[in-house]
Amino acid sequence: MTPTHCPYCALQCGMNLTSVPDSSNDGNGGGVVEVTERADFPVNRGALCGKGRTAPALLSSGVRLTTPLIRSDGALRPATWDEALDRIADGLSRTRTEHGPDACGVFGGGGLTNEKAYTLGKFARVVLGTSQIDYNGRFCMSSAAAGGIRAFGLDRGLPFPLEDIPKTGCVILVGSNLAETMPPALRYLTELRDNGGKLIVIDPRRTRTAEQADLHLAPRPGTDLALALGLLHLVVAEGRTDEAYIQERTSGWEEARAAAMAHWPEYVERITGVSVPELRETVRMFCETESAMVLTARGPEQQSKGTDTVGAWINLCLATGRPGRPNSGYGCLTGQGNGQGGREHGQKADQLPGYRKLDDPAARRHVAEVWGVDPDSLPGPGRSAYELLDAMGTDIHALLLMASNPVVSAPRAAHIEERLRSLDFLAVADVVLSETAELADVVLPVAQWAEETGTTTNLEGRVLLRRQAITPPDGIRSDLHVMHELAARLGVEKGFPTDPEEVFEELRRASAGGPADYSGITYRRLAEENGVFWPCPAAPTTTTTGTGTGPLKSAATEEAPHTVVPDATAANRPGAELPVTGAGEVHPGTPRLFLDRFATPDGRARFVAVNHRPSAEEPDAEYPVLLTTGRVVSQYQSGAQTRRVDELNAAAPGPFVELHPRLAERLGAVEGEPLAIVSRRGRAVAPARITTTIRPDTVFMPFHWPGEGRANTLTNPALDPISRMPEFKTCAVRVERAS
Ligand SMILES: Nc1nc2c(c(=O)[nH]1)N[C@H]1C(S)=C(S)[C@@H](COP(=O)(O)OP(=O)(O)OC[C@H]3O[C@@H](n4cnc5c(=O)[nH]c(N)nc54)[C@H](O)[C@@H]3O)O[C@H]1N2
Ligand SMILES: Nc1nc2c(c(=O)[nH]1)N[C@H]1C(S)=C(S)[C@@H](COP(=O)(O)OP(=O)(O)OC[C@H]3O[C@@H](n4cnc5c(=O)[nH]c(N)nc54)[C@H](O)[C@@H]3O)O[C@H]1N2
Ligand code: SF4
Ligand SMILES: [Mo]
C-alpha cells in the first residue's frame, strides 16, 4: 500500500494505492492499482470525489499512449524513443538556427510536479535559450496571483489552511462552485455553518454550492468589480471600517476609499442586478462577526478585469481589518493539481524559481549560479500563454508542449487550433492522445502520477510528496527523462537529472531566499509530515517576528518595483550544504501568512484604487445574451483524461447549454433540443438544458469537450492588462435553434 495524492485538482486529496494483479494480461508490463481511503491526510480525511476514485482507470493500456508517435505521410505512426527524441531535437535546433532561439516556444501545465515545472523552465532558458515559455496556469489563477502580489507582496493562493474556514464567522465565496470542483472541501463550509458561521455565495447560477448558502447573490457575469466596490461603499457609509487596522497595517486607503465612494448602491444594483437590500445584508453579515473571509475562484478572476476585481475584494477585506488576523482574510482557491507550485518555479514567462522575477538582476545572479551559467545568458521575460499561442506560425515556429490541451481549453480555440497547425514543428508529451497531441509531429508517451514520484503544492501552499506506487509499462518514460535526453541531444550533458529527488535538491537551492522558499523542505520531511507549508527556509531565521509567520519575501508585481532581497544566511547561498531533518534546527513551515507583517517593502498591505469597467464584450442587438463557462463535477478540464473513464462519461456524457425557461420560451426551444450558440469567434452546437437556476440574460456551457460543442470556439481572448488572463467567463452570444 502506498500513501499518495490524487492526480487531478489542487485539493490534492490523500489516497492509498494498493497493487492488484493485472487481469488484462496484455503482456505490456505495468501494474494496476486500487484506490483506498487514506484517513490520515487532514485536507480530505479520506473523502474523494468520483474523479479521484476512478483515477486508476487511466493507467490501463487501453486508453493511454504506449509508444512514441511520429508523423509521416500525414499520419502519426509508432516509432522508437530514439527516433522520436532525435526528431524533436532536430526540429528545435533547426528552428533555432533558421529563426533564432525565440522562435522555439515551450508550453507547460499546472498539472506538472514541482520538479517537472522547474526543469521545464530551466530547459527553456538554458538549453533552448528562449524567452518564449508560459503555461496553462495563466488561464487559471493568474488574476488572483497578480492581485495578491499587488496588495500583499506575495502570492500564495490561501494564506491559511482550509481548517481555518469552519472557525471563521462569515465566508463570502465569489465565483466558486466548490461542491462540484472540490467536493471533499464542501465539508469545511458545512462545518462553518454547523458552527454558526454564515456563508454567502456569489454566482450568476444557483449552483450546488449556492444551495448551501445563507445568502446567494446572482450578479450579471462580469460585474463582480462593481459589486465589491458597492459593498465597500456601504461599509464606509455605515461606519463599519476598522480604522486602527487601516492606520497600522495598510497604505493607500484614501484613494481606494474615494474610488469606492463613487459606486453608489443604486448604481451598483443597476450594473450587477443585485438589489440594494441584498448588498446591505451582505455587509451586515460580513461585518458583524469577529472574523471573516473572502474566497475567490475562477468566476470573478477569468475576466479582462480579473486583477482589479480581486483588488476590490481585497480592499473590502482590508477596510474591515481581516487579512493577517486569526481565521480571516482573502484567499484564492487555486485549481490544478500543482496549480500553486506550478506557478512558483519558472515555467511562467516572467519568472525564475522560488517565485523570483526574471528581470531582477539579483534573482538572475542567484539562479544562474545554481544552474552554472552566465546570468547574461538568461533570456528576459516572454509572452503570456494566449499571446504565445497566438504567435505560433508567425514568430513562434516550433513548440514543445507538456501537460496541456489548448485545442479544447484555450480561448478562441478554433483560431488557436489553426495556429497550432501552422507551426513548422510541434512536439507533445502526454499520457493520452489529446486533441492537441493529434496535431503534433512527434508525440511522447509519458508516465503519470502513480508511476513516478514528485512533489506538488496544494491550494493551501502545502508541499506534498506524491509517491510512486507502480512501475510504468514498457515503452513509457518520464517527463524528466524526456528533458534529460533532449538536453543531451541539444548539447547540454549536465544539469537535467532524471531522478526527481535530485531535481528537488537543486530546486531547494534555487528557491532559497526567494519568496517561495523551499530550501528547508526535503523528501524525508515530506514523507514524515503531512506536507510542509512554504515559505520554509533551510533554518529558522532571526527575522521571524511571530508565531506561524516566516521571513516573508516580496514578489514584485508586473507594475510595482521589485525589492531586491539579499540572501540573509550562509545556508541560502547557492551550493551551500542545506540541513535536513534531524540535523539541528528545522523551520516548521508557514501555515499562516501575514500575521505580523505583509510581504511588501514597508510591511503594509496596499489598497488599490480601482473602478468599475464593462467587460471587453457587452451584449448588443446582434449578440444579446451573455455566455459564461465553467465545469461539471465528473469531467476535468479539457476532458483529455476524464473523457477516457467510463464511469465519468456515463455521469457527464457530453456538452450542453444551460438556459433559463424564459429565454427558452422566447426561442421556442425545448429541453434536450440542439441549440446553436454564436459569438464573434464562431459557432457551437449543444443540447439545451433548461433550468431556473440561471439568470435569464445568461447561458452557461462547460468547456470539457472538443468538436461541435466546444465552448471555447466562442470565448473572447480579451486579456487582463496585468495578469494577461483571457475573458473566459464573459462574452456576448446569440442563441438559436440549431435545426
Ligand atoms: N470537476 C472538476 N473539478 C475541477 C476542475 C474541473 O475541470 N472539473 N478543474 C480544476 C481547476 S484547474 C480549477 S481552476 C477549479 C475551478 O473551480 P471553480 O472556479 O469552482 O470552477 P468554474 O466552474 O470554472 O467556475 C465557478 C463558478 O463561477 C461562476 N461564474 C461564472 N461567471 C461568473 C462571474 O462573472 N462572476 C461570478 N461571481 N461567478 C461567475 C460559474 O457559474 C461557476 O459556477 O476547479 C478544479 N476542479
Ligand atoms: N471556456 C473555458 N476555458 C477554460 C477554463 C474555463 O473556465 N472556461 N478554465 C481554464 C483553466 S482554469 C485551466 S487550468 C485550463 C486547463 O486546460 P488544459 O491545460 O487543457 O488542462 P488539462 O485538460 O488538464 O490538460 C492536461 C493535459 O496534460 C496531460 N497530462 C496529465 N499529467 C501529465 C504529466 O505529468 N505530464 C504530461 N506531459 N502530461 C500530463 C493530460 O493527459 C492532458 O492531456 O483550461 C482553461 N480553459
Ligand atoms: S477533489 Fe480533487 S484532489 Fe480530491 S479526489 Fe477529487 S479531483 Fe482528486
Ligand atoms: Mo484552472
Automatic annotation (TrEMBL):
Residues 1-63 form the 4Fe-4S Mo/W bis-MGD-type domain. Gene3D superfamilies: 2.40.40.20, 3.40.50.740, ADC-like domains, Dimethylsulfoxide Reductase, domain 2. InterPro entries: Asp_de-COase-like_dom_sf (IPR009010), MoPterin_dinucl-bd_dom (IPR006657), Mopterin_OxRdtase (IPR006656), Mopterin_OxRdtase_4Fe-4S_dom (IPR006963), Prok_molybdopt-oxidoreductase (IPR050123). One of its GO terms (biological process) is respiratory electron transport chain. GO terms for molecular function: 4 iron, 4 sulfur cluster binding; metal ion binding; molybdopterin cofactor binding; NADH dehydrogenase activity. It comes from the Bacteria. GO terms for cellular component: membrane. CDD domains: MopB_CT_Fdh-Nap-like (cd00508). Keywords: 4Fe-4S, Iron, Iron-sulfur, Metal-binding. PANTHER family: NADH-QUINONE OXIDOREDUCTASE SUBUNIT G, RESPIRATORY NITRATE REDUCTASE. This is 4Fe-4S Mo/W bis-MGD-type domain-containing protein. It comes from Streptomyces aurantiacus. The lineage of its organism: Bacteria, Bacillati, Actinomycetota, Actinomycetes, Kitasatosporales.
